Amino acid sequence: MRILAMALAITTALAAQAPLRYPPTRKGDVVDDFFGTPVADPYRWLEDDNSAETKAWVEAQNQVTFAYLAQIPQREKIRERITKLWDFEKYSAPFKRGKRYFYSYNSGLQNQAVLYVTEDPKAKGRILLDPNTLSKDGTVALSGVSMTEDGSLMAYSISVAGSDWQTWKVRDVATGKDLSDEIQWSKASGASWLKDGSGFYYSRYEAPRGGGSLTGVNNNHQLCFHRLGTPQAKDILVYQRPDQPEWYLGGSVTDDGRWLVISCGKGTNPESSLYLKDLSRPDSPVEPFLDKMDATYNVVDNEGDRFFVSTNQGAPRNRLVAIRKGETDPAQWTELIPQAKGKDVLESVSLVGGRFVATWMRDAHSAVEFYDLKGRATGSLALPALGTAGGFGGRREDTETFYTFGSFTYPGTIYRLDLKSGKSTVFRTPKVAFEPADYEVKQVFYPSKDGTKVPMFLVHRKGLKLDGRNPTLLYGYGGFNVPLTPSFSVSRMVWLEMGGVYAMANLRGGGEYGLDWYDAGRKEKKQNVFDDFIAAAEWLIAHKVTSTPRLAINGGSNGGLLVGACLTQRPDLFGAAVPEVGVMDMLRFHRFTLGWGWKSDYGSSETREGFDTLMKYSPLHTIKPGVSYPPTLITTGDHDDRVVPAHSHKFTATLQAAQAGPAPILTRIEVSAGHGAGKPTDKAIAERADVLAFLVKNLGMKP
Question: In this structure, how many other beta carbons lie within 10 angstroms of the beta carbon of residue 466?
């Protein structure tokens, strides 16, 4: 039996090492002209994800990938361990409307979290909405909820297969029954009720003519009002800007019910404009408030026509000011919480319990401080470790608020803050089957190519030997003013249990140090982001944390672009790469769904300057035939209507054709899945297990 088992093991190992035969990918003859430069696009046909040829290609690629993964002996054990760790109760922080508290709950392995309602936050209460009953495969997800002021009605939106499209419905909270209301063609939208609960504001696009496609280009966002009990055809168009088709519009009713605050932003630009509609006058017009589109403006609360606004106007790391309607000159504003003197970023502010609760980002982790309504500091909140705090929602008259805190080895814990006494107590503690004391978290600062100091978190078992042999997973994002802060992940814990090191670099282009940090990593300065990530890899190698054969890079969406760009720029530096749902075709990203909104970060090939910049780093266009690329697993979802799967498909086909070395170039295409949000638990576990199995094999790990 022992000899037989050994023979089977050798056979399996040899099969896994045999040269891979990829499905043939037809090459077309499409060539585009960009300002006199011809650029071939031989796999343009893969952009049509509904064609029979593309579907056959997807199926054939998946067959190769899953056959490869099936031969990795540790794969099943990894999946079992992720499943075991994942199986713990998960709660969201409760929020209150009227006499009712609402929260989400997952018993452990449910595909979707269940929404509960209770009048006692310590009691479980009853199920208000269970998305798991809406589909057999768990691909229908709850994407948004909004309650009336008295908590009697709930507007909620659902999405299917990870799509960004939302369908809104209304449910009676007491009976748990849906009303007749239904709203379609909504995207990038919340719902904000009138104070009396007679209707709500939401955002939508016009329905495509003739049924249209869910993945076509969308523009001319509209803000509408839906009156309860009426068909969508009778909804009132409140505001639109056909002269600005790339604007996103959102509407929010102030807590006192007096104002509709309309927020406008151009794509993902950090600048915004605010408009007001006086709801105390039925026929009041929409009027400009802060309409210069010169900075970020977020209304925290108001007192009559005096608004508390968080902004980066005159403060790249944000400040809180009070602005009266009509005060358009910043010199007229009253500064309540000034920009920090150091590098801290004012990340968020809420007004609850008669005080401002300010969450600061301090070297990419949280600090929380309290201020009175005149901006005087009144204290701070002690956090249990270096990590991330969030929440602190509620109304100014509330006597309590809830918040969450988590870190790399600290599962998200919910706390209750008594706003009268200032005392914070643990409200819910997750019970995860691992020992956090076995691991350590530290933060280092390393120099990038131009000398800029970049922070990076390192997480690993205690007693790490710096011998250059540690399998290491380097993760990054670096874009859209989004900061990466410490958080808990089950699959990451499994990686750490297997002896891996996890490194997270806080690259330029993110929001870790405010607007200046963001500006230093976008458009013509985007190469700084890739330089920061490459420098992180070089630091890890130089300090003997790891070495090239043991170093993998990973990122998703804009982070997928990051991995793709670094993979093509420095194929010699990495032992493996896993770009997920990445933006890979930088010359055509703006042609699909909401891709036009990313021009604020990337620029566009529509201009000569944009083309020249993008062509230098576009992952699809910087692949070179005859180069030996490291083992690469490219993941996407066949229903991704944010970063359409064509990006990953074309990158896969091009990289497979160019590969000169023996390393595998594989793609894992999840069926009935989108960009990531709303992904069912079973699909998420299977995907993470496959990624870790791929890394275990290709980094030579023996967990």
Answer: 10
pLDDT at 16: 42
- 491 contacts: CB under 8 Å, gap ≥ 6: 82, 688, 689, 691, 692
Q: Distance between CA 526 and CA 11 in Å, rounded?
A: 46
Given the residues 92, 272, 366, 557, select the one marked as catalytic: 557
What pLDDT, on a 0 to 100 scale, did the predictor assign at position 58?
97
Residue 317, classed as helix, strand or coil, is coil
Whether 18 has a pLDDT exceeding 70, the answer reads no
Query: In sequence order, what E strands does 332-452 have?
Result: 334-337, 345-352, 355-362, 365-371, 377-381, 388-391, 400-407, 410-418, 424-428, 439-447
Quote the CA–CA distance of 452 and 521 in Å, as a whole number. 12
**Catalytic (active site) residue 639:** no
Paired strand residues for 576: 552
Mean pLDDT to the nearest integer, 322-333 = 97
Q: Are 106 and 685 in contact (CB under 8 A)?
A: no
Cα 29 to Cα 679: distance, rounded to the nearest angstrom: 37
252 is annotated as an active-site residue: no
Q: In what order do the strands lie in the sheet with 365-371?
A: 345-352, 355-362, 365-371, 377-381
Q: How many residues does the chain have?
A: 703
**Nearest Cα residue to 615 out of 588, 645, 594:** 588
Give the three-class secondary structure for 139.
coil
Q: Is 639 left (phi over 0), alpha (psi -120 to 50) or beta?
A: alpha
Cβ-count burial 17-28 (b if 16+ within 10 Å, e if not) = eeebebeebeee
